[in-house]
Amino acid sequence: MTQPTLIRRVPPTPSPLRTALELAATGLPVLPLRRGKVPFGNCPACTGQPPACGGRPNMKDAGPCQCPGPCHAWAAATTDPSVIASPAWASAWREAVTVAYHPGGAGLTVVDLDDTEAVAWARETLPTTRIVPTTRGEHWIYRGAMRSVNAVREGVDLKSTMAYARWLGHGTGTMTDLPDIVRALAVKEPSTVRSAPQAITVPAWAGETVCPHRTPAYLDRGIAMAEQRITEARSAVHATVYRTFLAVLSTHGRCGCLTEAHVARLFTAAHAKGESPRHCTDAWANARTTLGL
User: Fold this and answer.
1) Residue 103, phi then psi, degrees to nearest 5
2) From CA 275, how far away is CA 158, in angstroms rounded?
3) Which of 96, 174, 211, 257 is deepest in the core (most CB within 10 A)?
4) DSSP code of residue 113
5) Rounded Cα–Cα distance for residues 239 and 87 (Å)
6) CB burial class (10 A; 0-12, 13-18, 19+) of residue 143?
């Protein structure tokens, strides 16, 4: 007798609306994303000038959206099931392809690593936490909110307040507190000058042939103090490195007494705080440009 064929029943993929309601019940403010993984456009009343909501059309300086439908991207995110499942949101859920959430609204920060190089940097530099795989990289999720900033490093965005992140699953690992090194990533340098890594040389003043400093010990003490300043930085590491480089160059950058060995000591101290070789080179170049060296 012919044996019956066993059919494996695959559980249906939850709809975006069902996923959103489940996430909202856990305290995550959610919103629908349409094709292209972007939020729905603003409602007609809020596209006018001035917008009906009272804020700017993109809501970058406003609080939670009070419009009946999912309006103003992250500002529409909510944990209220009566809003999420309301008739005003129904058409959006019918078109939605996935769900997003507002990390800052849940007291979270997402370090969005967009490629393998960024992931490798995070694994070498950041404290471990909850990790969610993405299409090209990973989301590292920390407990604690902060300012959202894009492109803090190559392939690295910070998503927290006034931003949204796609829901890609629960991930693995234990969520840990937001570390200072991540907060420091949001501190940008005053200059945006970029340069390729190069040998470090410092030009002498016109007509200057002898270092004006009395003894080599003066320079050594200055470099030691700069190393200590970088090493002891508890937050805003990017800014501390830049300001320290600026201070060293303002004192020693024109007399020709700095050597590659001195600069290597500063770069080594910065590396120990999580700065990449490229960031050190850029910060050094930016400080030179600021001083006109």
Assistant:
1) -60, -45
2) 17
3) 96
4) E
5) 48
6) middle
Contacts of 68-72 with CB under 8 Å at 24 or more apart are 68/43, 69/40, 69/43, 70/31, 70/32, 70/39, 70/40, 71/40, 71/42, 71/43, 71/46, 72/39, 72/42, 72/46
3-state secondary structure of 252: helix
| Pairwise CA distance, residues 84 & 100, whole Å | 13
Rg (CA), the chain: 25
Cα–Cα distance measured from residue 273 to residue 248, given in angstroms and rounded to the nearest whole number:
18
pLDDT score of 210 more than 90: no
3-state DSSP assignment of residue 13: coil
CB 139 within 8 A of CB 111: yes
How does pLDDT run across 30-46, given as a tens digit for each residue?
Answer: 999 998 888 988 877 77
Q: Are 191 and 286 in contact (CB under 8 A)?
A: yes
Give 117-160 pLDDT, tens digit per residue.
999 999 999 999 999 999 999 999 999 999 898 888 889 999 99
pLDDT band for position 223 (50/70/90)?
confident
Cα gap 18→234, rounded to integer Å: 42
